User: Which sequence fits this backbone?
């Protein structure tokens, strides 16, 4: 059975909420409480989870640890994932610095750039390699995920090259529409989309700062 | 009528798809086609839009330009939005460099840091100011959105300070759970969540790179 992508996108949110509950030693949680924390209806949570089997007992809620383990298994978060970063400009360096990947099992094991001034540089225990050597390097040291932090003009070429090297998931920071073939996953980091839904809520509060666009 | 946040979150996606169609001079689009482009059911699109009135005629599809104008008005994207950035480390500099904000009406008009070495520095036409002067600076030059690119340890303090200055929306890059009071919008940029739903799709393809976590 094909599971809708929006369902898959919600599972990490469920896992995160359950992790927080587990950290506070909670043993059981209702779909009602989980829903309130995540702004999702309890019916939606029950429906989403029903794709993967039967969890929890009617009226008794979910066992936090068991459901969390199960979600980790479903999502593949019980594994270590290896990533290659392409682009070590300002953004790429910020990504290498990012403290959120490692605790969740994601590790950047290679970094590439096109700029001769950056190639050979040591950043965060990695030596920056030449993008021209992508194929050779990744055949010896394969990765699961490619992180794209290059200028918009070359983003598609870099994505194509990573996929040629066997990378099956792309985390794309380039502010441009790009394509991947079927079977390849891509998620874009899109700060503008996040801003655009917040403006709905703040647009009518009448701050002097917001002026009509002409 | 209270409109569910998930509906509001989908509107920018609809607007983006319509912009692309408009750029290709398409005049009409069906909910079917829009749905296929966005991986949302046509029924969902019709239901989402029905919160805001009647768009399109039965069996005739939506007028691209009219629906796009309407979504821009609903979301407040026909306005210019002013933003203040706090934190001009690697990530903050990458955000200042980001080319995606301005074309959508979002402009960073102030930048702050706590580091004396950075205060006074000129970056992208802005002079970095002292976070201690946040209140004074933003009372003279008010902003709608605060962008938080500071270390996790001080993220909550910075968010609290921005809200005290009248900021009503926070774009939060700090990798940590933070709180805002009711009525204040916050979106987190979360690369890990994006990775965690992609692993679902790639976990079973058996790359040698993914090894069991022990």
Assistant:
């Amino acid at each position: 059975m094909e599971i809708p992508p929006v369902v898959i996108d919600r599972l990490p949110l469920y896992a995160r909420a359950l992790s927080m509950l587990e950290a506070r030693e909670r043993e059981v949680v209702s779909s009602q409480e989980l829903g309130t924390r995540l702004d999702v209806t309890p019916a939606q949570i029950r429906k989403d989870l029903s794709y993967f089997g039967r969890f929890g007992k009617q009226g008794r809620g979910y066992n936090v640890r068991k459901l969390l383990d199960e979600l980790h298994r479903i999502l593949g978060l019980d594994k270590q994932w290896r990533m290659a970063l392409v682009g070590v400009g300002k953004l790429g360096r910020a990504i290498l610095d990012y403290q959120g990947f490692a605790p969740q099992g994601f590790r950047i094991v290679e970094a590439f750039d096109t700029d001769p001034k950056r190639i050979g540089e040591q950043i965060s225990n990695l030596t920056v390699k030449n993008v021209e050597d992508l194929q050779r390097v990744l055949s010896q040291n394969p990765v699961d995920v490619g992180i794209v932090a290059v200028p918009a003009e070359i983003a598609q070429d870099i994505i194509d090259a990573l996929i040629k090297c066997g990378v099956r998931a792309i985390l794309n920071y380039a502010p441009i529409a790009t394509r991947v073939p079927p079977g390849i996953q891509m998620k874009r980091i899109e700060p503008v989309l996040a801003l655009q839904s917040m403006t709905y809520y703040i647009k009518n509060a009448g701050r002097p700062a917001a002026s009509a666009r002409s």
Remarks:
- The CA atoms of residues 7 and 48 of chain A lie 6 Å apart.
